[in-house]
TrEMBL record:
Domain HDOD: 1-95
Name the UniProt record assigns to this protein: HDOD domain-containing protein
Gene3D superfamilies in UniProt: Hypothetical protein af1432
SUPFAM superfamilies: HD-domain/PDEase-like
InterPro entries according to UniProt: HDOD, RNase_Y/CdgJ
Protein's organism: Helicobacter cappadocius
PROSITE patterns: HDOD
Domain of life: Bacteria
């Protein structure tokens, strides 16, 4: 769903909400300093989409899913996992 070109905002929110862990991670990223955390924390995926944009949330979700896939069941790859987790944050810092 996340890689379809014509995914709607509601479709994106619905797809993300199917995975509570992914939802929590996206909200953590959106509420980080890198995305200009505003006074009130963002508490819903739909609000995150409105605030930082459809494409940005889709890219965050895709990146987090990729990290999850690459590091699943591989405890010896903690360094890789840590570097991949930091990459989206560092990319946002450069923008």
């Amino acid at each position: 769903m996340l890689n379809k070109e014509h995914c709607s905002t509601l479709g994106l929110a619905h797809a993300i909400l199917q995975d509570p862990g992914l939802s929590a991670k996206i909200l953590r990223v959106v509420n980080s300093v890198a995305y200009g955390a505003r006074g009130e924390p963002v508490s819903t995926i739909s609000r995150a989409i409105v605030l930082i944009g459809f494409e940005c949330v889709r890219e965050i979700a895709t990146g987090l899913l990729l990290i999850q896939h690459l590091t699943r069941g591989k405890p010896n790859n903690q360094v890789v996992h840590d570097n991949l987790r930091r990459a989206p944050q560092e990319s946002a810092d450069r923008q």
